[in-house]
Amino acid sequence: MRRPLVAGNWKMNGTRSSVAGLVQDLAAMDVPEAVQLAVFPSAVHLGQVHEGLFRSTIELGAQDCAFDAGFGALTGEVSPKQLADLGCEWVLVGHSERRLLLGESDEIVRRKFEAALSCGLKPILCVGETLEQRESGKAFEVVEAQLTAILGPLGIGVFEKAVVAYEPVWAIGTGLTASPEQAQEVHAAIRARLNKANSLVAAGTRILYGGSVKPQNAAELFAMPDIDGGLIGGASLSAEDFGAICRAVGK
């Protein structure tokens, strides 16, 4: 049985004051124990959030990491070793905003994924297609290529310590959401791709959906058999909305 995971990606949002209030509200949330929770603040707030959630079961993740595991001369980057030392358990790799806006290639994503694992972090590999790619019938092809960039050099075993997040690029921050059937179709294809390498690992790998998930559509999305939780953007900045989504997963 795959344990549902709800991860809140705060992106480039928050001040020390607003983050303090959000952390306090999150720590007081009433959510099912069966649901695993994690939040991904901006790098400048990681220490503050770690301290604020010290007595909470909510886990801490970073939105990105350097592609080198150790220390060194890489101005402006944050090593996965530093993130682990700070108390992070998770890290996002390959988010579409970094792929599309900052030019991160599949090779860079793989190096970050591998570096994170080497430091004991659990990577959440983000995959997804643009609207143009979907409309041209290439959604599965694009997602499979992004998966294969990890599977090829690193092997299926790495997914025993990782999570996949399917985020259709056309549904991120646009208000558009893939229908439950559209999302399930891609989630099933992801699991089928993993299954080609190892059926047991495929069956145990959690695949999250992200893309304008709200309390109003969460239950319908999470009722799909291959959707194991969500990577939540804007709604994770409200403890009320985030809690409602977590409870929808628990059902």
Automatic annotation (TrEMBL):
Its EC number is 5.3.1.1. GO terms for molecular function: triose-phosphate isomerase activity. The active site is at residues 95, 167. It catalyses: D-glyceraldehyde 3-phosphate = dihydroxyacetone phosphate. InterPro entries: Aldolase_TIM, TIM_sf, TrioseP_Isoase_bac/euk, Triosephosphate_isomerase, Triosephosphate_isomerase_AS. It is found in: Cytoplasm. Its main location: cytoplasm. Pathway: Carbohydrate degradation; glycolysis; D-glyceraldehyde 3-phosphate from glycerone phosphate: step 1/1; Carbohydrate metabolism; erythritol degradation; Carbohydrate biosynthesis; gluconeogenesis. Involved in the gluconeogenesis. Catalyzes stereospecifically the conversion of dihydroxyacetone phosphate (DHAP) to D-glyceraldehyde-3-phosphate (G3P). Homodimer. This is Triosephosphate isomerase. It comes from Stutzerimonas tarimensis. The gene is tpiA.
